[in-house]
Automatic annotation (TrEMBL):
One Gene Ontology cellular component: cytoplasm
UniProt source species: Jeotgalibacillus campisalis
Gene Ontology terms, MF aspect: ATP binding; catalytic activity, acting on a protein; histidine-tRNA ligase activity; transferase activity
Protein name: Histidine--tRNA ligase
Sorted UniProt keywords: Aminoacyl-tRNA synthetase, ATP-binding, Cytoplasm, Ligase, Nucleotide-binding, Protein biosynthesis
EC numbers for this chain: 6.1.1.21
Enzyme class, UniProt record, top EC level: ligase
Gene name of this polypeptide: hisS
Pfam families documented for this protein: HGTP_anticodon, tRNA-synt_His
Residues annotated as binding L-histidine: E81, G82, T83, R113, Q127, E131, R258, Y262, Y263
Amino acid sequence: MSIQIPRGTQDILPGTVEKWQYIEKVAKELCEQYQYKEIRTPLFEHTELFERGVGDTTDIVQKEMYTFEDRGERSLTLRPEGTAGVVRSFVQHKMFGQVNQPVKLFYNGPMFRYERPQAGRFRQFVQFGVEAIGSDDPSIDAEVISLAMELYERLGLKELKLVINSLGDKESRIAHKEALINHFKPRIDEFCADCQMRLEKNPLRILDCKKDRDHELMATAPSLADYLNEESSAYFKKLQHYLTLMGIEFEVDPNLVRGLDYYNHTAFEIMSSAEGFGAITTLCGGGRYNGLSEDLGGPSAPGIGFALSIERLLSALEAENIQLPVAAALDCYFVAMGDQAKDKVVELTYKARKHHLHAEMDTLNRKMKAQIKSADRLKAKYVAILGEDELNEGSIVVKNMETGHQENVPFEKLVDYLKQS
Ligand code: HAM
């Protein structure tokens, strides 16, 4: 049997890859306008980075990482997300010392999670994300959220829902954590083994549990919103004020807890509300991570960011029936009749490409009719046909495929002719 692709991965073939390139181009332009610079970090990092960064009680770290030992017996992990690596790099390269603060970065690349594959859930997927590190002003939270929304809108998505929440600062979280422990502790033996383990260490994760989500204590669990101290509430209100000024609609969902441990204050997700979009409606997730730099051995450097997968973005575009403008361009298809003409066509095609034209020729020595069919299929703007008569005259017949207009063009004028029109 032939070898198949691993589960949860996909080949992105010509015909589809153009959509990816288009999205990546729009995202990059947007980042330039917002003054975010690209960063590329390794696809694998020391396992400890994710244990410390993402959190060792999270599903990602406990169940989903591709971890391996290399030949030097180091434990390495294929990155399941981008934030930990970016903050590691921020600390390692002392970006906190740069004159321009906050440091605003974006990335676009594959991430790996051993999840159960289904629509919208892959084991290798591509995240586009941004991280703004060095400011704890709510205006940058609003900026980051607006960047994500703007990307979706530029690509034509309309049916979007932005949900925000505040996870509060450390003090608020400690108060909430205590309340959660008191709430669940008396009946913790009715919960799954994972939740029992989470109780003391990270009870917030219990609210995220898929197995126990219908337990009656879930609905009555103390809400973080009631434990936010004054400072955290003020921060959250200011964020909402900025979003309102920007004209960005949002919903506050006090139950929004994200699946990674580094968050505090702002947490947000963007969902697709399009009909026909699969069960997993979250397109984008992000939030603030004020302690992460310190957790990774760096100085205090508050940050906020988001990540979204291109795979889910493409599904959302499909659900809303949006076609991206990705028609392939072909300026000229060269058709040769006879061996001598073929020699000249090889030369002319090369010359056209050297002058940055999109050019194609037949390399299967097919009959003229078949060559012209190819030109048609490739949607060539022009077809240039060379027979023996034209060869002797030093010219080539150029036909405009849209208008049907056709002209004899001398070889030396061909490139200019194709370029002008
Ligand atoms: P996350 O919520 O784990 O956050 O992932 C962000 C996004 O990545 C999701 O909303 C989804 O679009 C996509 N995604 C996650 N897992 C998969 C998968 N298995 N298949 C396809 N797409 C997937 C983070 O990763 C954080 N690092 C985001 C962040 C950046 N927070 C602050 N800065």
